[in-house]
Amino acid sequence: MGRQVKVLPSEKRAAVAALLRYDQPNRPSVLLMRRAESPGDRWSGHISFPGGKEEAQDQTLLDTAVRETREELGVELQQCSRFLGPLDPVHAMSKGQVLQTVIWPFVFVQTQAPDLRLGEEAAHAFWLPLAQALSGALDSNYIYDPQGAQISLPCWRYQGEVIWGLTFKMLQSLLALVRDDSRE
Q1: b/e 166-184 (16+ beta carbons within 10 angstroms → b)
Q2: What's the pLDDT score for residue 2?
Q3: What is the pLDDT of residue 96?
Q4: Which one, of 13, 14, 15, 19, lies nearest residue 75 by Cα?
Q5: What residue spans define the domains of the chain?
Q6: Which of 98, 104, 146, 181 is the most buried (most CB within 10 A)?
Q7: 165 Rama class: left (phi>0) / alpha (psi -120 to 50) / beta
Q8: Is the whole-model pTM more than 0.85?
Q9: CA 183: distance to chain centroid?
Q10: Domain 12-183 is of which CATH architecture?
Q11: 119 alpha carbon, distance to own chain's centre
């Protein structure tokens, strides 16, 4: 799980938390959030994992993921979950352009139900059932229109939410692990 990535000095670093829960054996769900609408936020209103930019007080990127999850969803990962490991990092993108930010996803598994308290950066939180995503039941297309050039991108649609872009890409990596885990 996770690979080493060389980060250029000019690149920023960010981290997100993928919190899994198992309501039934081999049937995980992952906690996602819809970001609050905010002028100047390039991911305003998008579905994402809790997370964000590394800050000076963060000793590690794992600390960044834990802090951001607390700030955005009120979830204390150290109290309600067990850390499993990192997924492969991805470069952030916006409007079809690769940004100078590398995002590290960290995977946790719930050990007790978290107390969700939405912070100002989160408009909504929900659990996405990964078995439905694996089955293809959520498969759809999202029409992305950067600067008037419509592009059809793969996405999942779940309870009125559209999961696409970076979150969709990171979830694909997570699904590969879940798929492998469910076969054992």
Answers
A1: bbbebbebbeebbeeeeee
A2: 46
A3: 66
A4: 19
A5: 12-183
A6: 104
A7: left
A8: yes
A9: 24
A10: Alpha-Beta Complex (3.90)
A11: 16
Q: Is 183 helix (H, G, I), strand (E, B) or coil?
A: helix
Query: In the numeric block, which tokens belong to residue 155?
Result: 């996405």
Paired tokens of 32: 């996602």
Instruction: Give the pLDDT of residue 145.
Output: 79
How many residues are listed for the chain in this entry?
A: 184
CA separation for the pair 81, 79 (Å, rounded) = 6
Residue keyed to tokens 């590969």: 176
Residue 40 CA neighbour count, 13 Å, CB half? 1
Place of tokens 């850390």: 83
**Which residue is associated with the tokens 């950067």?**
146
**Encoding tokens for residue 8?**
């250029």
Angstrom distances, CA of residue 56 to CA of 13, 14, 61, 68, 104: 11, 12, 11, 13, 17
